[in-house]
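Following up on my earlier message about calcium ion. Here are the inputs again, as you asked, copied directly from the submission form:
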Amino acid sequence: MFKDIGRKLIFMLTLVLCLQSGMAMAVTSEDAIQGYYYYWITGNVEQGASPVYPNGLTILIYDEENGHVWTDSLARTTIAADKYMLNSFDSFAPYEVGKKYLVATIQQSGWGAGPEQVTISGSGVEVLNLTMVEGGGVVPEEPPSDVPTGTIPLTIARDPNNPANILISWNTSVPAYRDAEIYMLAGDGSGTFTNNTANWIMVNDPAVSALFDDPNGLADGMLVFLGQFGATSTAPEAYFKAVQTRYGAYNVDPATGLQYLEQAWAVGKFDVLLRRFWNFVSVPFLTSNASLNTAYGTDIFTDGDEAWKINTSVTPSLTEMTSFTGATNWQGLTINAGEGCMIFMKTLPQGETRTMTVLGEVARSYSSRMAWLFNLMGNPYPATFSNFSLGSIPPAGSGQDGDEIWSFDPATQTPSVSSYRNNAWDPTVPMQSSNGYLFFRKNNDPFDWAPVPNY
Ligand SMILES: [Ca+2]
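Thanks, got it. Here's what our run produced:
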């Protein structure tokens, strides 16, 4: 952080000297060490025959990749007094020295300036004068997805290079996604996800930066969350979002009225403690039919451990679906968000626990069919509902007399039941993230369960 500020100050100072001395600028040794190329492209934009005045137009320097010009190119600025100055420091420097880039205005009403090539020399200021022409300029594209403006979609997985770590990554082949700021939200393990930006913190903040390997090194599209998978985990729940730096995480997107950080999609990790014998669990993330091997891992289980789910291939019934063995792991069994699963830890000593870390994307909506009789379910969101009847669990009018919800306390190996009567659950049951529940639809029709997240 301080190094960045220092670099920026050196750069600003160098620029001032450069402008005062007629733009004869030398590269400082600091530049060479850092590998950042302080570089300005500047010039005039003549109006020419254009009915569109250049002042106020946006001008870009961009790397034309596969014929695309992305909305968020390397750097951009606004033309003022017929002049522009594109600053490499406002981009995700370094540029590639010796490579040709393009400079152009965004086209407006069919008129624009450029594109014209500029070769990055790695030092000094390049002067490139442009003239508005009909058909000139560029029409940039949006990044290739439906992600919210100014944000970057993340993926989360176990680190293939070190299974104790978690790898957060994003697609830097999209130029806009190289401009990343990564934010984290930590929780106590009870299901505390929120989009409220007050609780989020940038990963290079000294308060959390030690949890990561090189939290400032984001140009590779990868961030390693150290020691947070399984036994060595110290953060029982944690979430990540990414925004594009130039938008400003706390600025408001005029199209949605939300802060860019607020509307970014999230991924996360959640630790589930397993105890001796029966555990009733669920995955509070979108997993799209993740295999149990992926969702639950394999290293905390031993031969003879069991996974039980509802077998829908016959009359719905609670069925042992697979036994764990070191040779076959969990075989082909899969788990989805909102699905409950009973795990039997056969050989785990009394009083010991095992940490099962689950990873995935935080769901923004959810729906599943509740069948007649047995439904093993879980909260599909990493945020606890205080009451099953809230958030349409089940939707108003869908719970009917005779329905039952069974919870299970793995510490005491004790089940408890709540019955639906007089339009309410008796007693009320909080729906905790990562717990599993048995919803027993005794007499009534199936229905679509679509709880609304309370983020
Ligand atoms: Ca990195």
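One observation from looking it over: The chain has four helices and 34 strands. Hope that helps, and feel free to reply on this thread.
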